[in-house]
Design brief:
2 domains; about 290 residues; three-stranded mixed β-sheet; 14 strands; about 35% helix; Spore Coat Polysaccharide Biosynthesis Protein SpsA, Chain A; single chain; alpha/beta; seven-stranded mixed β-sheet
Length: about 290
């Protein structure tokens, strides 16, 4: 059975989705995976274009009990669908979730995700790196999301644990995660307080409370750019970790709110470059410096 890579997008994320698909295409034959896209509001023309490039395009529906705040809003479908990926796409050995604002810089990131999912409940990347800058407001943000789902008492306990970003995940077909993730999701929805649906908080709670087996991958497998801008290696034409030994990033996650924003990227000698963090922009930068 093959692995399947799943992502989701509406029309606002269409350009990011194209970047992700372009970054996957060069590795698809070598790693023998399939690609599926959850359509959260693509235009008919964009959907037709995407259907020609991937193995499945699915329009998901709300799979929990009806919910007044979240059930009818398409933007929450990708979050609510994640506990049910094995049901939506049966017959695969491994389910890899990649947010549409991620892209593959090096194949090893995909290889690690596939390998790391074997024999555990989930392979994921904790929000930990010596270069990351976590502020008090980041911890407050996390506590609020736990509290919306589980109440402040449990939130204060959970916030002490390492936090896994849900934008890059790998889960094997027989994982114990699927059942407990869906159950805790529904339980959280039944008591939800607040206007933001955080599937990430529910996933992290399930990992801790249900003592799931996790393979923890290094930060370069899901680099959270808002916590530390990458550096630019002008020799290799790759984005790297912003700390010695400046290892190249494997999967870049453009976690800024403004995805097309330009940033000042320093090279390894401290010289600035101005570029967006999309794959297209980084390829243009590499091409311009190869002339």
């Amino acid at each position: 059975m093959s692995a399947v890579i799943v992502t989701a997008a509406d029309e606002g994320y269409a350009e990011l989705l194209r970047d992700l698909l372009n970054s996957l295409a060069v590795h698809k034959a070598a790693l023998d995976f399939r690609i599926a896209v959850l359509d959260l509001g693509l235009t008919p023309s964009t959907r037709g274009e995407i259907e020609a490039r991937v193995d499945r395009v699915i329009s998901p529906s709300w799979m929990f009990k009806p919910h007044a705040k979240f059930g009818a809003d398409a933007k929450y479908l990708s979050r609510a669908a994640r506990p049910f990926l094995a049901d939506l796409l049966p017959g695969h050995s491994t389910y890899i979730w990649l947010d549409a604002d991620t892209w593959i810089q090096q194949r090893q990131g995909l290889e690690w995700l596939i390998d790391a999912a074997r024999g555990v409940d989930i392979a994921a990347v904790p929000t930990l790196h010596r270069a990351y800058s976590l502020r008090a407001q980041d911890i407050s943000w996390l506590r609020e999301r736990y509290a919306m789902a589980f109440g402040i008492g449990l939130a204060n306990e959970l916030v002490q644990q390492p936090y896994f970003n849900a934008g890059v995940l790998a889960i094997r077909a027989g994982s114990g995660l699927w059942k407990v993730y869906a159950e805790r999701f529904q339980s959280a929805l039944d008591r939800w307080q607040g206007d933001f649906l955080s599937d990430q908080a529910i996933l992290n709670a399930a990992i801790v409370l249900d003592r799931l087996a996790v393979n923890r991958l290094p930060a370069k497998t899901n680099w959270l750019c808002h916590l530390a801008l990458p550096l630019w290696n002008a020799k290799t034409k790759l984005l790297t970790e912003p700390a010695l030994p400046f290892e190249p990033l494997l999967i870049v996650h453009n976690t800024f709110d403004e995805k097309q924003r330009e940033h000042i990227l320093l090279d390894l000698s401290g010289q600035p470059r101005q570029a967006r963090l999309t794959r297209t922009a980084i390829q243009l930068l590499a091409h311009s410096e190869s002339q």
